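Follow-up to my post from last week.
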Amino acid sequence: MENKRNSQTIAEYIKNWSRKHSLFIMAYGTGCGAIEIPATLTSRYDAERLGIRGAATPRQADVLLITGYLATKTLKRVIRVYEQMQDPKYVIAFGSCTINGGMYYDSYNTINVLEKYIPVDVYINGCMPRPEAVIAGFQQLQDKIARGEADNGTRYKENLEWYRANQHRVIKNWRMPDYNW
Amino acid sequence: MLEKEQKLLEILKSAFQVEGKVIRNRRVEIWDHKEMVPAILLMVKTQLGYKHLNHITCIDWLEEGKFQLVYTVFSHTDKLTLFVKTKIDRDPAIMPNIDDIWDQANTYERELREMYGIEFPGLVGDQEFILEDWDEMPPMRRDFKTDVYAEKTFFAQPGREDAQDVRETITKRSGEEIPEFAKKYSRD
Amino acid sequence: MEGIGLKILGALLTTIMAFAVGMTYGGITRKLTARVQNRVGPTIWQNFIDLVKLQSKKTNIYHGVMGHFAPMWIITAAMTVLMFIPVLHPNSTWYSTWFPNLTFHGDLIFLLYMMVFGSLGMALGAGQTGNPNSAIGVTRGLSQMVGFEIPFVLALVALMVQYKTTSIQDIMAIQDQSGVWMMFSNPFSFLAALFASLGMFRYSPFDIVGAPAELASGPVSEFGGKYLGVMMTGGSIFAFIKLTLYVDLFMGGAYSIPELLIKTFALYMVPVFYGWVSPRYRTEQAIRYFWGWPTALGILGVIIAVW
Amino acid sequence: MAREKETTLYIGPQHPGITGNMMVKVKVQGDTITNASVHVGYLHRAFEKLIERRNWLQSFTILCRFCVPEPDPMELTYARAVEEIEGREVPERAKYIRTMVMEMARLQSFMLWYGGQSGSSGLYTLGQWSVGDRNYLLDLFEDLTGGRIYHMYIWPGGVRRDLPKGFKDKALKTMDYIEKRLDEYDKLLFDNVIFQKRAQGVGIIPSDKAIEWGVVGAPLRGCGIKADVRIDEPYEAYDKADFIVPTFEGGDIWARAQVRRIEARQSISIIRQMLDKMPEGEVYNKVPNPMKWKIPAGEAWAKTESVRGEVGFYVVSDGSEYPRRVHVKGAAYTNGVTVTEKILVGQNIADVSFILNSMGVCPPEIER
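User reply:
Got it. Predicted complex:
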């Protein structure tokens, strides 16, 4: 029992268990991987049986899916959405293009490495990842949550200056409110 | 065989003294100076029934110092596509505005202004259409080097630098030989 | 003293039951919906898991006083209304010991006023978040309420006229004596009230308040975490209240909890079934819908009652 | 009575009702839209710039990503433009396969449209059904090409490989299943009074302005104008197929939905015909070493009919291994920007997402 709980207190264990089984994903299709999200949520793959369902606004969501490459214009919106989400929050990055730029490595308008701008919990590689891969990615995230290792929000807050510096490098005109969590 | 196409070319030639030719069936192209383009387009739209403006293409001929603009119009009655082509100077690039003939030309021209830096006098609408806070050279110009810019602005994942040719990289990193059948596809 | 202790215990029990039943019904609906949609679906306890998760989220938003106040308002309103609802039939043995709560004679009119309190709290809270989606959602919610309140009130008026009382307990007792449920003695009023219930439960086609594709979940779009959890709790208690009220008024009440569950579940499935096959109405279409046949049926019900 | 306050509402880029990653900025008075502007660019990946740096065949990896819900028309259009410049012949069997693939792509896109149109109006059951059933079509694609969404199957000179064994039977079986399901969808969607009420008289494109505005595809046919690239300029084996191009009067969402309803059935019929009539033979007129493959200088304009309307490619070659310029005019460019801006004015705020879905707006195609 102790081993399974991974030296968490009972309260922590229950919290993490419920977080694991109830993941609200942010309805934001940032890239082409978004085409597989409907497939993942519908009959054949049915992610809702794992407790995964959509949430309409960032306030209610737990998981931010970065479905593919991010244009710099979208990056700005993604950062805003990410900062509006409430702790604990998780980020799943889809596709090769979030890992190293993929086929857009030389494009002037897409970022290459997502991790430099916002912390990422799970990467799902492939272009584009199949629904099976997406579900496998979600399960990896669930394991991570159950172990109590998913600390996306804290990582961001602790290294905020570093992330901000990277973000400012891409977003030249920074007109965004500062959130104080 | 190509009567409709020939007839269209005749009409345009007699009206505007343009050069032109029939490319194949359903495709006719004409060349003219940039000042004449709005007049030709207005005439084909109002009198010949070429009411559908497909798009405006810009081709950058960097070596000549010219931009080639192609206006593609289509007639739903004749099922014919007409290309109105013109070449303009690259610097300064100015082209008469046609968004009073077709409303949707407004977006096409805004895109050209943003991507190639072609000015359309009298064009209204936001300066930004697709890009945001862009302060470099218009990116679709051929002398804009996108890879240099990307390297300068974004972070490359380690391992990207030597991965220009995947097969070479594999041999270098792991010592694995390229199989015989794959060698004929090598770059040099 | 002993009496008060028992009463408090009974009130607590009522609240917990209302909450549990409302949440489970929501879970069962999610499961059934999934089955209709060719899916396996979540467990029927999924709503409880969601609630625990929402409560365990950190919340660092400040949207003004009303932003904090609105969820509390909703849950307070829900619990207050619950106290005035006779959960079981007054003649049943369970009732006199556990569920008398605060029911008194003449409570129907009082309830009519109290029921809108929750929505009011929502409106005030959503108004202060400053999100335009919330504001539009609230406007829509109030418009829709104007729509469905008319057939609902007409049905209740018919009821009060027919039985010449405003006490829910008396209405239940009369139905019991005559042996005919209101549902059968005045079917038109029942139908009018049933149509109104479609609007109350906000399933499709009347989910115009929180329509995700239009308003990004409407009034609650700025509420997350604990706020949303509290709202969810309040909402499920309200669902139980509406169902119980309908059972009390039209189906002669229930003598035991299993009977109550069967009757409420049957009623709950009506809007759910309707929702599966219906797209969403526009606001003015929804109001026109309520002011059409349901209102006519309600008037007919009143005429029959007066007769 | 004082005028109501005008509110600005941003629908998107993060919004459940938006089709993809774009933004519609609407000004509303009460519930009525007084001004709408479509903002794009959130998906700009500089494709046309990148293609200048890829060689003729490498471009295919980029091409299919122009429009995610329906990538095949992009491949076909580009392949046809390249073939026209180079003068490369396509084997007869490849033409039939291409036609079949195009119709399969259209059909799966129709299924996605069923989901979008009903989901945006709150009928989630149908959305779940059709998007779930779409998987069967994607299975066919996987059998045929190896990819679920992106296929890169159509190449200049034909298709990459022949039909796998047993494909015909499987395809026919799937078509039977889909046809049965389509009837069920119609019962749920088109026979539904609420859907009729929502769709009729909403989002009207005036039929006398439609051509001038640059409307293409199903919205144009919904205005009563018979325009379809498949019959205007028959390509591949479409001249050998027997199908009708439906037109409906009205120009509203209802008419557009009706057009798509019939076209989905026509797609099934064309797929069956193609499987039936397909001749034996080669499928690929092989290109030389793709790394050194040069195309003579020239320009070509090719277009195909996708679900959203005509997709046009203007391809320019300067005689080297790399394309000089590949310009893409997606169907959504005018349908989704200027036309949508015009028809949204005067509509109810509740109908924005509904109209966007009926216009088939696909943002990656607009900004590329």
